[in-house]
Amino acid sequence: LLFELMAGRLPFVGRTTEETAMLQQTEAIPRLRQFVPDAPDSLQHIIDYALAKQPTHRYPNVQALLAALNAVQWPLPASEQPAIPARGSHFTQEIPLVDDAEQTILHHREQPSQPQEPLPSLPTSLGVYAYLCYKRQEGGVQRIPLLSDHVLVGRTDPKHKFRPDIDLTLFDTTATVSRKHAIISFDGQKFTMEDQKSMNKTRHGAHILHPMEVVELHHGDLVRFGSVQMEFRIPGLATPSTDDTQTA
User: Coil, strand or helix: which one is 32?
Assistant: First the structure.
């Protein structure tokens, strides 16, 4: 419906109902700019999420969809630009604004960049590149060290004798983490995280990564693998809490 409202046509049109259903299941989502040349990229991202072939890859709830729509900035012609941009103006005014806490779908490039401390010499003398820190319900923080410049985060699969570099099985009581969920890499200058087509998504702050999307990681960033939320920390940039527990 959103695609039709913008493009003036349905995204998938077959000669019969059966052919249309087959197109919906197998064909790539059309690019909106074929029909609306000035459509912003963020609107295409929304359509891609909403029309994802797998239901689990779509928006988790209506609040997430509303937040994404409210974040779309549609460029106005120069003659229609307001003298002073109105705070909170969005692509559509009919959709009510939601609280910042509810805006779970934001495009990563729209987040303001923050000045970052220079990275210390890595790895440390103990061979640690970084930590993924999990706050336990009973208190304290569990620190999992990243002992390589390329680690796979996921869960153990005893049936196939598979174990990732960083095993989150202990923290994933509802089995939301994929076997191969995400990869964290360090190139000597920066850390990055790449989703591995995970079933329940990888999140960087409020941003949900596309399958195989890569984002840059900074000290203190909140990341989430399925339902497991963790904090990314770089040794040497902050003093660990006294209740931290390091695990291999």
Answer: helix
Distance from C-alpha of 39 to C-alpha of 5, rounded to nearest angstrom: 12
Angle at alpha carbon of residue 74, lines to 218 and 114, rounded to 5°:
20
Q: What is the DSSP letter of 35?
A: T
Beta-bridged to residue 164, according to DSSP, are none
Tell me: the pLDDT tens digits for 9-36? Answer: 888 888 888 888 888 888 888 888 888 8
Torsion of CA 57, 63, 68, 72, to 10 degrees: 150
Phi/psi of residue 31, nearest 5 degrees = -85, 125
pLDDT in tens, 47-71: 888 888 888 777 778 887 887 787 7
Report whether 39 contacts 71 (CB < 8 A). no
Close Cβ partners of 229 (under 8 Å, ≥ 6 residues apart): 134, 135, 222, 223
Predicted TM-score (pTM) above 0.70 = no
Tokens of 78: 């120069």
Please, which pLDDT band fits residue 77 given cuts at 50, 70 and 90?
low
Edge-to-edge strand order for the sheet containing 191-195? 166-167, 150-154, 182-186, 191-195, 214-217
Burial class (CB in 10 A: 0-12, 13-18, 19+), 43: buried
What separation in angstroms does the CA of 36 have from each of 9, 10, 169? Answer: 11, 13, 45
How many alpha carbons fall within 13 Å on the CB side of residue 215? 24
Helix (H) or strand (E) holding 7: helix 2-7
